[in-house]
Amino acid sequence: MKYKRSFSLLCAAALSVLCAGCAGSETSEPVQTTEASVTTSAPVTTGTPETGTQLSSETVLVTSAAPIELEPAIAAADDEAFLYINDGRVYIGYTGEAESSYQMPRMCYDAGVAKITGDGQYTVSVRNDTKALRLDATKDPEGDLRVSGCQFAAVVINKGSLLYPHMCIEINEIRKDGKPVEMIAKNYTSSDNQIEMRANIYNQWVNAFPKDAHTADGPVTGEFGEYSAQIIDPDKLGEWTKIEVDFTVKGCSGPLPAATTTSVPQDAELTTASAVSSDTTVSTETALSSESTVSSSAAAASSSAPKAAS
After folding, report:
1. Separate counts of helices (H) and strands (E) for the chain
2. Is 196 exposed, middle or buried (CB count within 10 Å of its CB: 0-12, 13-18, 19+)?
């Protein structure tokens, strides 16, 4: 009996110690968690409804992509030259406009245009390795976009015919990714709408000189040969990233000074003979801008009237 009582007292003592330990834990400091285990915003679910994976907000912050800087879209102004071009599939190109759509991507991003300020040398260019163009064409700024060949190419000056009626564009060199492209003919200058001025690089739809075709040496007529609307072989162009064109502009001289300009009465008839025999040389441009009526046939017949300024 004494042993049983001693055992009971021993068990009671142990139980008392255990209860005291439990009471102590209720008044101790709470356990602190690490910052990495704390979620300050609602978790994000990714994947399919069946296999969706819970990502913590911290994981999203670590793996989210940084903002992407896209190249600017360039539009050619009225007095600027640009490279009008379409690739071999007529899927992508540049028309001098700063616009783009997924259906018809434009190489307007970071396009090289040139402000024409007078006679001199200029360069225009396009490139298709920009993030902005890839985003338009593939919906991914790092997407795979490959461009090859061309269906059309020309150096175009917006309102060139209006700004410089006698200007000439002479293409000096065409480069593909920094390397010269072989030119198989010389270019001429003309205008399709009497507003722009252009020099065709490859225009497969033109196989004869237009009426206003000219170079710095004068009008060009006859058959394509030394001069042509196709001065490169597009089949040899192949895949490319950047096209650059160096060209020279001539014939941008302004109107004659006032001291050498003859004023013609409104009711006077200006003939070729009177223009030639006049003490003061009257240019075709001055005669056309005067208030008198000038016969175009007479102007064309005049040997002193410039066909194309050099």
Report:
1. 7, 15
2. buried
Q: Which amino acid is residue 2, in one-letter code? A: K
C-beta separation of 97 from 75 below 8 A: yes
Residue type, 308: A
Residue 63 to residue 91: CA distance in whole angstroms: 35
For residue 103, the tally of other CB atoms under 10 A from its CB is 7
Beta bridge partners of 115: 80
Beta carbons of 74 and 98 less than 8 angstroms apart: yes
Q: How far apart, in whole angstroms, are the C-alpha atoms of residue 108 and residue 33? A: 54
Alpha carbon 254 to chain centroid, angstroms: 30
Spatial distance between the Cα atoms of 224 and 222, rounded to a whole number of angstroms: 7
First to last CA, the chain: 135
pLDDT at 225: 95
pTM of the model as a whole: 0.62
Round to whole Å and give the CA distance between 147 and 192: 27
Classify 29 as helix, strand or coil. coil
Q: Give the list of residues 6+ apart from residue 179 with CB closer than 8 angstroms, or none.
A: none
Half-sphere exposure of 159 (CA within 13 A, CB side): 9
In order along the chain (310 residues), what is the average pLDDT of each group of 10 residues? 47 46 41 36 44 45 66 96 94 88 80 96 97 92 93 97 95 98 98 95 96 94 96 96 97 54 33 33 36 36 35
Of 152, 178, 307, 163, the closest CA to residue 249 belongs to 163
Element (H, E) at 300: helix 296-301
